[in-house]
Structures are given as C-alpha cells and as structure tokens.
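Chapter review: from sequence to fold.
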Amino acid sequence: MNFDIGRLRRSDRIIGASAIAFFIVLFFFKWYGASSSASTGGFNYSVSANGWHTFTNSRWIWIITIIVALAAVAISAGVFALNSPVQRGVLVAGLGALSSILILYRILDHPTAGTSGTVAGVHYSASVGIKIGIWLGLIAALALTYGGYLGMQDEGTSLADVREQASGALSGMSAAVATPSATDTGATSSDTSVPPIPPVPTTPAPEPPEGTTA
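The token string follows.
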C-alpha cells in the first residue's frame, strides 16, 4: 500500500514529527559527558555519549516508543492495517508519557561533579553532567505524548475507555497464557484413551452322566 499523506490528521503529523525528532536526538545528540580545561597552552578535553549509549536500560523503552509511534502514523496513512484491542492514540500517549517520566528522572537524578582550582599558577576546571541532548529528548517525548493525546480525542477515547481497553488487553493475555493447547500438553485425546479389555474366555461345566444324582 502507498503512503497517503492526505489521510494524516493533525495528531498524526505531530506524532510522526516528534518520533523522528526523538530518534535523531537519541542517536545524534550528546546526553551526558565530561569536560576539562587548563589555562596553560589552551588545553581542553571533553568526552560525551548520546542517549542510546548512556542509558542502557531506559533506551529500550525509548526505541519501542519511537517504533510504535511511527507504526501508528503508517497505519493512519494506509500503509498497512492492524487490529488491536488498544487504540493507537492510547498506545502513543502512554508510551510517550512513560518515556518523558524516565527522561525527567534521569535529569533529576544523575551523577554530576565539578571542580576548579590553581596549581603552580595553572588554572584548571573539570565538570561531569548532562548535556543539551537530554533536554531535547524530553521535549520530543512530551510532544509525542501530546500528539497521542490529540489522537485519543480524534478517536473519541476517554479515560474510562483507556481503563477498559487496558483491562481487556490484560485479560486476553492472561487467557492465552492460562489455556495451553493440546500440543503444549504433549498428548491428544487418542493418546490418553484406554484400549478396551478383551473378554476372558470361559469353559462350560461338564454335564453329569445320565442316571446319576447330584
């Protein structure tokens, strides 16, 4: 199927742009690093890493959020169809909010240090902390959440519907796990049937000779 951009709503455009921005910021901007400098000879040293290499646990939530958001835009554009018990706007808004919370937590709680001084007439300084990339990542995740919220409004999904959809999805997963198939149990009905017991042959008792009494 072709990508029909005319089918995209305002919420889809915000979701798509935010997801692409989130991807670029995650892989091509610095989120954390260290730098140092000294006055002698103009010495400067810095090392930093992007969001993907810095946060090895949260990055999987972020990449899943990006993939789901882009898939939601592709579905709206008619690239492919997918039936899901949870509306696309709910998925995007939920994952966007979770990504925003994780980034905000990293901003508020992260290793940081700084020092400066003068040794033998040489002034030096050093610092460790977050970089501009993490702030841009937070903005992209918040924009993604907003786009998902607008998508919920376009779909006519309320908070009560969100709870109902989440409950239905969890119930379906629980039923799938709790009901094993015949191949999972390793036996079929023909395997568990008991073969019939053959009848035991009997020999009739001999009749007494004539003229005798019992």
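Two observations follow directly from the output. Confidence is low (pLDDT under 50) at residues 181-194. The chain has eight helices and four strands.
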